Recover the amino acids of this structure.
């Protein structure tokens, strides 16, 4: 199985900040990397797929980059609704696997 | 507009079989490249993918749970059913179904989830 490791596990930031979350795969996954946002008590929401392609309706303050094994999610100019948990997921091969999550908290 | 909704028991006893139904609208499981997946999330933990079924009847499963899982689709009813045998307290989680299209966004639409508790 491909292991996905996110860092940091938690992050404190202020409204207006720019933050970056990292995801590392245990082996190369090409471009098959997605990011999800999950607010407390809610289902996950698709943000990005194929490393950097924005899901329809997702604001451009979210961006993704990377290749091979190392990937990042950047959120520019944080707003209150962005404070949530973020997960990366690989779909290069089965089983589909997720990172452990990064909790983004208000400072 | 794509919508999905999970239904089934919210409490099961250890060793029992769990049967969950995903009812969906806004797409057809007859359509090329389309699939419906099941995922779960234990309280306070990360997401775990369980199974997927595609338009062409291809089925994929988590290797660690394969022996306990069955997934079926009813194209006419727009439903996907997941069964998990021999339930254990560690299977307590929120179970989600989600739409997937190969070559497109991953799990771009999710159900609201159903919390299943395994307890005697």
């Amino acid at each position: 199985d491909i292991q996905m490791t996110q860092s940091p596990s938690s992050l404190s930031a202020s409204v207006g900040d720019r933050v970056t979350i990292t995801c590392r795969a245990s082996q190369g996954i090409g471009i098959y990397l997605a990011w999800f946002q999950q607010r407390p008590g809610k289902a996950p929401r698709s943000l990005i797929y194929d490393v950097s392609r924005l899901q329809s309706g997702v604001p451009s303050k979210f961006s993704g980059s990377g290749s091979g094994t190392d990937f990042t999610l950047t959120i520019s100019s944080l707003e209150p609704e962005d404070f949530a948990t973020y997960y990366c997921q690989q779909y290069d091969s089965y089983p589909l696997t997720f990172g452990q999550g990064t909790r983004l908290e208000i400072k | 507009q794509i919508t999905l909704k999970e239904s089934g028991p919210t409490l099961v006893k250890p060793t029992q079989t769990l049967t969950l139904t995903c009812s969906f609208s806004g797409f057809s499981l007859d359509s090329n490249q389309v699939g419906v997946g099941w995922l779960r999330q234990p309280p306070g933990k990360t997401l775990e993918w369980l199974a997927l079924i595609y338009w062409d009847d291809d089925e994929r499963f988590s290797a660690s749970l394969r022996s306990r899982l069955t997934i079926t689709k009813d194209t006419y009813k727009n439903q996907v059913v997941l069964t998990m045998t021999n339930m254990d307290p560690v299977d307590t989680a929120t179970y989600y179904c989600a739409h997937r299209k190969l070559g497109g966004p991953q799990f771009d639409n999710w159900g609201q989830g159903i919390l299943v508790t395994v307890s005697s």
Observations:
- The mean pLDDT of chain B is 97.
